[in-house]
Amino acid sequence: MTWLKLDDMFAWHRKVRRLSDGAFRLHVTAMNMAARDGLDGHISHEDLDDMPAIRSADKRATELVLRGLWEPSSNGWVIHDFLEYNPSREQVRAQQRASRERKARWDARRRHTTTDGQHEPHEPHEPHDEMERVGNAVTHAAATAGVTVTRPDPTRPVPVLVSSPVVRADRQTSSRHPGDAREGATIDDREMTNRG
């Protein structure tokens, strides 16, 4: 799977914010197509015909050329600076190849067993290249995102919640007995205490 990379200020760029809605939609759709299909930013006339949801696509393409976002080519257009922000088809293929090889090495190590069915001990694996090191780090980071491991400390007691007295709202506190030491005591509580 490939990804289209857009700067988070893309929609606010001077050239982009002045586009009509249709031209904006065509531009984003064409960039997605170029990334997905490995077109290196080239959009042919046939590619434009494959976007039936875009009304007046030729008119929108002309607008994109006038705004400097597309450049005319012999068979259609080239999206300006597409390869500056996105990997080329060859770079994507090289990354996919490296990922397949890394996964194959991992599988081979994981499945390596002795004749009696026991796993052979093996040396800790060191990454073969920068891509494998980064790939594993990204995988680990994604798998553990938001996970907080807590372990109880047996030397510390478990905190106990102490409840505090609750004064009910339907009872009034007494101001007739200023000497009563129980703050928050209600009239009914005092009467019960005085009775015995």
Key words describing this protein structure:
196 residues, mainly alpha, three-stranded antiparallel sheet, 6% strand
Question: Mean pLDDT, as a whole number?
Answer: 76
Structural class, by secondary structure, is mainly alpha
Provide the gyration radius in Å.
Answer: 35 Å
Largest sheet data? 3 strands, antiparallel
Succession of helices and strands: HHEHHEEHHHH
Give the termini separation: 81 Å
- The helix content is 40-55%
Categorize the overall geometry: flat
Stretches where pLDDT is under 50 for at least 5 consecutive residues are none
Percent of sequence in beta strands: 5-15%
Number of helices: 8
Strand order of the largest sheet: 1-3-2
Task: Describe what you observe in this structure.
The chain is mainly α and 196 residues long. 44% of the residues lie in helices and 6% in strands. The protein contains eight helices and three strands. It has a three-stranded antiparallel beta sheet. A hairpin with a 2-residue loop joins strand 2 and strand 3. The N and C termini lie far apart (81 Å). The model has no long low-confidence stretch (mean pLDDT 76).
Topology:
Blueprint: H1 14-17, H2 21-37, E1 42-44, H3 45-49, H4 57-66, E2 70-73, E3 76-79, H5 82-85, H6 89-111, H7 130-144, H8 187-195
Describe the structure concisely.
With 196 residues, this protein is mainly α. It has helices spanning 14-17, 21-37, 45-49, 57-66, 82-85, 89-111, 130-144, 187-195; strands spanning 42-44, 70-73, 76-79.
